[in-house]
Amino acid sequence: MSEDHPHLRSYGRLKARPIKPRQAALMESRLPQLRVPSGPVDPAALMPAARETWLEIGFGGGEHMAAQAARSPDVLILGAEPFQNGVASAVRHIEEQALGNVRLHDGDVRELMARLPDGCLARIFVLFPDPWPKARHHKRRLVQAETVAEFARLLRPGGRLRFASDWADYVDWALLRITANTAFRWSAERADDWRAPPADHITTRYEEKRLGDCAPVFLDFVRA
Ligand SMILES: C[S@@+](CC[C@H](N)C(=O)[O-])C[C@H]1O[C@@H](n2cnc3c(N)ncnc32)[C@H](O)[C@@H]1O
Description:
- Strands 3-2-1-4-5-7-6 form a seven-stranded mixed sheet, with helices on both faces.
- 33% of the residues lie in helices and 20% in strands.
- It is an alpha/beta fold.
- It is globular.
- The protein binds S-adenosylmethionine.
- Residues 10-11, 57-60, 80-83, 86, 108-110, 127-130, 142, 204, 206-207 line the site of S-adenosylmethionine (SAM).
């Protein structure tokens, strides 16, 4: 762990290709309003009319987050992503679909989670997180006992956590670590519950690339 960052880095690049000028201008004008404010965050104050608040961790290009937000305009969706090209793409989706119920943290989700109050979330999505397949990198995986404890603190009773991956070893890893926390119950009853995409899932271009070593697996958990 470096002194600057309390957490070991769990993401890859912060920036890839240059952000297109139009997208950069949009980022500059819209991101300040979309950004979750600094300091302690009260989701109820961000969108008082919201029925509930969801958190998407590592939203990539923001396709899933924007589509969920469009489907549920009465839900506040917080999204965290440190990859600048991803944030720029998400801002474009939010603008194009005129979404008023999404707020962004353009950084490490663990910084945002630490600023959220207990039991404030109804859903958390961790979709196709960076797999860090080499054993010496496993400590960089986002799903660790500490992050699972944070998920348990933030989800209200009955709240739901979805983890998806197409890396078999990360699926096993996540299942072990999430069920090791007694706050979580895996809701699957039959193989199709984890083999088939859940009815409310939205597939992203990243997921479609099938970069992993197995078919996508979806693990849904309920917070006791
Ligand atoms: C492999 S991509 C998947 C993107 C998206 N969820 C999808 O399915 O299309 C994983 C993303 O998680 C982000 N990520 C990794 N660690 C993170 C962290 N600590 N906080 C927020 N996002 C993180 C990465 O930057 C990357 O964009």
